[in-house]
Write a structure and sequence with these properties.
The complex is a heterodimer of chains A (616) and B (207). By secondary structure, chain A is of the alpha/beta class. Chain A has 17 helices and 28 strands.
């Protein structure tokens, strides 16, 4: 049997195969993956290659699928063309199966992109007397055996007109394996999804280009549900006591998401119609309120959610303004007060694949802590409060332009402001820095009391001079009026220090309990990851200095930013990661802190603004 | 008495170890537990309450002072002490939050009350039983969840039915609780924080 060498361009891979071998097979042997969704039956036209010689004459299938000018130029279908001599074959990128990888910020993760929503551009053969297949059959057969016909009427209704107007060149939109929509021409590049982290205080959305997984725009805003209360308990109470409030809470979060959709799509120059899927993470209460399901059971002992598993619903059913056929994947929860956002953190940090002892802390309103020890996962919520997200702090704000995010004190105070503009307020990382520095220089005691002017006489003049008294008590001027936005000073009040103190005591107390539960000491922790609201990269030295986290060697601590949001992106762009998230939700054990009698004692001890555990 | 003044400072500044050391010293010097409580601990907690009202001290200072106070009290357990009154305290049924309640209990203890802490998720029947078993002067209830506030109303009713309402004063507190709710359920008192709770409790005592 004669054998010939086929060389594939532009990569120059070559392979020697027997005469009569289909090019598709030869390509596979050379390590090239050509697209063949129809299973190599010559029905989809995706395996286009170009060759001038060495191949048998075009088959009847090829003559039907390809135009005369294409054939003249040497274009062939790799699944049909067979080798009969030495050949040099050019493979265009569009015919290759490409695996995109995304690098995930701050977490050093590389993930193969394989989203739930995929688009395939198809050139279908027009109907002829010898091929009078129905429009839908023509399309579905080109898509291959595993694809399912549309579940809804719209794609079916669109089909006849679309096919004929576009000359049978259409793009099939698949959600999972089901045909969700059909579009004219090649719209494969216009496939977007939105990864959303619905926080109790802040909501962040990442608009992602699905074929590549790249985030093309980010938008964030305060969760307007705050009008019903800052914390999860107040919102649960509102929803359970009043049907109108449940509806109001639901509408508030949907409105925020729609606003973020508008802003992100505008920023990226993408139409909302091109957004086909949302992947949403949030704590258990947030998941309920987004779906308009009453969280009433979470309001009192024994704290029972209405659902724990992931839910997939139509975007239009929720009133979310993306492609009408779009769907929303609400990720699964771990327990009553530890939700999908924590699953996101575990996924992003890969705590589910740790052998040793690794810990992640989300420094946000609910202060979730995850401990991974020898393959076991435990998680709790500490209900820290929104101080570290900028709420409840007099000049607190989210980490965006104008926020003071770092503070240093020597003989005077210097602040770093995001965006380099005049400061408008203080974000979480700035708050932690400010307190750490104020305690270090002695303007605030370890018990959290801000000194009066007279008591602070030993401080450098410029620093002591920033202590001032207002109607409620003391305050410290971080940025003077002439330095601030709209000539307003940025101050940290004595009350602000108290709010931060309570929040950090909850988090520290929770960490201490969780470590004890795992039978470990702070020194045993191999890695501590600090996650938080978007943009918040809390400085580990400051966190250690005020006892926000236990004294673990600094080199073992890393700030990983909005890990929950990263987790949502992973679940949006990869079905493998989505499955992994489901597994994580099942496996992770929820620890209910309020049932622990010793939480109170630990909370009390954790109030002190100094490195903890205290020596001696 | 120098040692008692020093003990006061140790408790006010929340220094547990010093409080323990000074209590030990006071006992070795022959002071009675009664005196240490009244002239040492109670005075310290009074000062703590004042500073709290003046916005100088906050929850953290109250908590650490209370821990120091407990350390001191633990050294004298079993010794006879005159209590100013007996309070039965707990978090209402259905509710597990106890930090606020614990703070109030500690402040009351520091002020010389005999405090019977029933913990969390306490039913009207449990309040009733503890109240009569301990001949309580006051039943103090805390709630953080609005739905569990209803249980406070039930407790007042239970005390009524058992004919104990005249003998026992009821005071309530907690984030969603208000004076008007206290009036509605015919409680005898309401306090917005731990320091005022002590004042209110003292006011509710007979005589």
């Amino acid at each position: 049997m004669a054998e010939f060498t086929v060389t594939f361009l532009p990569d120059n891979g070559s392979v020697t195969v027997a005469a009569g071998t289909p090019l598709l097979e030869a390509a596979r042997e050379a390590g090239l993956r050509l697209q063949s969704p129809c299973g190599g039956e010559g029905r989809c036209g995706k395996c286009l290659v170009q060759a001038q010689s060495g191949l048998e004459a075009p088959t009847p299938v090829e003559t039907r699928m390809l135009s005369p000018s294409q054939l003249d130029d040497g274009w062939r279908l790799a699944c049909q063309a067979r080798l009969m001599g030495e050949a040099r074959v050019t493979v265009p990128d569009s015919s290759l199966v490409v695996e995109h990888r995304i690098m995930v910020e701050g977490v050093e993760r590389e993930v193969v992109v394989a989203p739930n929503v995929r688009k395939l551009s198809l050139r279908l053969p027009a109907p002829v007397v010898d091929d009078p297949r129905a429009d839908l059959s023509r399309l579905m057969e080109a898509l291959g055996e595993e694809s399912l016909p549309p579940a809804r009427l719209k794609p079916l209704r669109d089909l006849p007109g679309l096919l004929r107007r576009s000359g049978y060149h259409v793009t099939a939109v698949l959600a999972g394996n089901r045909l969700a929509a059909v579009e004219a021409g090649d719209t494969t590049d216009k496939t977007y999804g939105l990864a959303v982290d619905v926080g109790t205080t802040t909501v962040v959305a990442y608009l992602c280009h699905l074929p590549t997984g790249a985030a093309v725009a980010v938008a964030s805003d305060l969760n307007s549900q705050a009008q019903y209360g800052d914390d999860v308990i107040s919102r649960i109470e509102a929803a359970r006591s009043n049907a109108d409030d449940l509806s109001g809470l639901n509408q508030a979060v949907v409105a925020v998401i729609n606003d973020l959709v508008a802003r992100a799509s505008h920023e990226a120059g993408v139409s909302r119609e091109a957004i086909y899927e949302l992947a949403v993470v949030g704590n258990t209460c947030m998941s309920h309120l987004l779906l308009g399901v009453s969280p009433a059971g979470l309001g009192s002992v024994p704290f029972v959610p209405s659902f724990r598993s992931s839910q997939t619903v139509r975007a239009s059913d929720l009133g979310i303004d993306v492609n009408p056929e779009g769907s929303v994947y609400v990720a699964p929860n771990i327990g009553s007060f530890v939700g999908a956002d924590t699953v996101g953190v575990i996924l992003a940090s890969e705590l589910d694949r740790s052998d040793g002892l690794r810990v992640a802390v989300d420094i946000g309103t609910n202060g979730e802590i995850v401990v991974a020890k020898g393959g076991e996962l435990y998680a709790c919520s500490t209900a820290a409060g929104p101080a570290f997200e900028g709420a409840k702090i007099s000049r607190g704000m989210r980490a965006s332009a104008g926020a003071i995010d770092a503070v240093r004190i020597d003989d005077d105070v210097s602040c770093h402001v995001i965006g380099g503009v005049r400061p408008r307020g203080l974000c979480g990382s700035g708050l932690v820095d400010a307190i750490a520095e104020l305690v270090r220089v002695g303007a605030v005691t370890e018990t959290g009391r801000m000194l009066g002017r007279k008591e602070a006489s030993s401080l450098p003049e410029k620093v002591g001079g920033r202590l001032a008294e207002n109607e409620e008590g003391m305050e410290f001027v971080l940025a003077r009026a002439e330095e601030g936005y709209a000539d307003e000073p940025i101050t940290l009040t004595a009350r602000d220090v108290r709010e931060a103190q309570l929040a950090k005591a909850a988090i520290y107390g929770g960490m201490e309990l969780m470590l004890q539960q795992a039978g470990a000491e702070p020194g045993d922790v191999e890695q501590l990851l600090l996650a938080g609201a978007f943009g918040n990269y809390i400085r580990r030295e400051s966190a250690l200095a005020i006892g926000l986290i236990p004294s673990i060697p600094a080199e073992r601590i890393a700030s990983i930013g909005n890990a929950a949001g990263v987790g949502a992106r992973l679940m949006l762009c990869s079905l493998g990661e989505r499955r992994r998230g489901e597994e994580i939700a099942r496996r992770t054990r929820h620890v209910e802190l309020s049932e622990r009698k010793d939480f109170y004692d630990r909370f009390a001890g954790a109030m002190m603004l100094k490195p903890l555990p205290a020596a001696g | 008495m120098a040692v008692l003044e020093e003990l006061q400072q140790a408790i006010i500044s929340g220094n547990r170890d010093k409080a323990k050391e000074l209590t030990q010293k006071a006992l070795e010097e022959g002071l009675e537990a009664r005196k240490i409580v009244v002239d040492g601990i109670a005075v310290a907690m009074e000062v703590v309450g004042e500073k709290f009202r003046a916005n100088e001290f906050f929850v953290p200072e109250l908590l650490i002072a209370q821990r120091a106070m407990k350390e001191s009290l633990s050294m004298m357990s079993g010794a006879p002490v005159d209590h100013v009154g007996t309070v039965v305290i707990g978090t209402a049924k259905g509710d597990l939050h106890d930090i606020g309640k614990n703070l109030v209990a500690a402040m009351l203890e520091g002020a010389g009350f005999n405090v019977v802490d029933l913990g969390v998720d306490v039913s009207p029947q449990q309040f009733l039983k503890a109240s009569s078993d301990n001949s309580a002067n006051i039943v103090a209830m805390s709630a953080l969840l609005t739905t569990t506030m209803g249980s406070m109303r039930d407790t007042v009713a239970a005390l009524d039915e058992a004919g104990l309402r005249q003998k026992v004063k009821v005071m309530i507190g907690g984030a969603p609780v208000t004076q008007s709710y206290a009036d509605e359920i015919k409680a005898d008192g309401y306090a917005p924080d731990a320091a005022s709770a002590v004042e209110k409790a003292k006011q509710l005592l007979p005589g």
